[in-house]
Each structure stands twice: as structure tokens, then as C-alpha cells.
Amino acid sequence: MRLSASSDEVKARMQAELAALGEALAGLRRASGLSQAEAGERVGMTGQGWGLYEAGKRAGLFRPDIQTRLTSALGTTPEALLLGRGSPPASGGGEGEGVRGMEARSAAFSGPGLTAPREDETFTFLVQTEDVWPWASSGVVLVCDAGRWPRRGQGCVVETRDGERRVRRFDGADRDWLLLKGGAGGLDQAERVARADVLSLATVVARNET
């Protein structure tokens, strides 16, 4: 009989994830050429306060609004933060644990209509509509990773079996449906797409708005 994870185990996993996000934030800051003090000044905090995020000591880093605020100060996006995060180490050796990388991604892609793509498959996508305004408008170039399953709130590009590709924000999924945001009404519009009609689903990992 397998027991559920204890509160200590859950806390340890959350801390590992927070530490991975902090390391990714530090990597983005270094790539931007900014010190902690300079980055903190851009968002109205001290360098010490910024350093607490990088050290994985502020749980607010899980919040999408905080991710947007911090990454915007570095001239990048939350997608880049999540891409740089990698996979936190698995704790414990119970059944179903320790699955990472492409194996974990393949599980997300399983079910009617979707199969796991190559892990190294990336492509660019030019937005030509206002379907996901104000997140991205016409003329923005998106960098997409077809080997990564999106998280809720992330941008994604859906390719259907009729050959159409469209950009949306991912809002969830079940066995039979993808739940998306976007369309003629922008992000205020909700959309359900049957998995059986979807050829591929790619996650937006970066945006070029210049």
C-alpha cells in the first residue's frame, strides 16, 4: 500500500521548484548584464530583495504577475523564465515518481489526437491577428517549443488536422478537450478544441516584439 506524500515531502518539492525558478531568474539577469541592485531598482526594490527571489526564498516567484514584473525588468518574458527553469530533482523513489524530461512531456501529449514530438523541435510563428491581444499583437514573432507542454496561462500554437495554425493562451485540458483563450474577441474569448482534431501543440518560450 503506497502512502500519500507527507507535508514535509510536499514542502521539499515546492522548495526545489522555487529554487529552480530562482536560479533561472539569476541566469536571465546575468544574461542582461545587470547587477541585483540594478535589476531591483527597475521594479522598485533593493538588490537584497531581488536576491531573495534568486535564492528561492520568496514564494511570490510562483505568481504569474510577479514573474511578469521581474522578467519585464530584464527585457524578457515569463516564458523565458520557465524555459530556463529546467526540471527540479525528483525526491523519493515511490511508484510514479522520478519521471522527467521527454518521458514526462510524452504523458501530457498522450490521448486522442496528440503524440509526443521531437524534444529539439522549435520554430518561429508570426502573429498576424489580434486573437491574443493584449498578450501579443499582430507583427510579434513567437519562438515555440513543440516538445514542451504548456502550463496554464502560457502562450501556445495549435496546429489542427485541417492544416490551420493559430496562437492561443493555454487554459487547461482534459482527456478529450484543450481549453484555450483567444479568438476574434482577444483573450476574453474562450475556446474548446477537441484533441482528436489537433495535430500538434507547441509552447511559446520567447517573443520578439521589435
Overview of the structural elements:
This protein has about 210 residues and is α+β, with helices and mostly antiparallel strands. The chain is built from six helices and seven strands. A seven-stranded antiparallel beta sheet has the order 1-2-7-3-4-5-6, covered by helices on one side. A hairpin with a 4-residue loop joins strand 3 and strand 4.
Task: Write the SSE topology.
Elements lengths: L6 H26 L3 H7 L4 H8 L9 H10 L4 H8 L15 H9 L12 E5 L14 E5 L9 E6 L4 E9 L3 E5 L8 E5 L3 E11 L2
Antiparallel strand pairs: 1-2, 2-7, 3-4, 3-7, 4-5, 5-6
Helix pairs in contact: 1-3, 1-5, 2-3
Q: How would the global form be characterised?
A: globular
Order of helices and strands: HHHHHHEEEEEEE
Could you describe the largest sheet, including whether it forms a barrel?
A: 7 strands, antiparallel
Taken as a percent bin, the fraction of beta residues is 15-25%
Write down the Rg.
18 Å
Instruction: Give the class from helix and strand content and strand pairing.
Output: alpha+beta
Instruction: State the total count of DSSP E strands.
Output: 7
Termini separation: 56 Å
pLDDT < 50 stretches: 1-5, 87-120
Helix fraction by DSSP (H/I, runs of at least 4): 25-40%
Biggest sheet strand order reads 1-2-7-3-4-5-6
Number of helices: 6
The average pLDDT is 78
Quick overview of this protein structure:
This protein is α+β, with helices and mostly antiparallel strands and 210 residues long. It has helices at residues 7-32, 36-42, 47-54, 64-73, 78-85, 101-109; strands spanning 122-126, 141-145, 155-160, 165-173, 177-181, 190-194, 198-208.
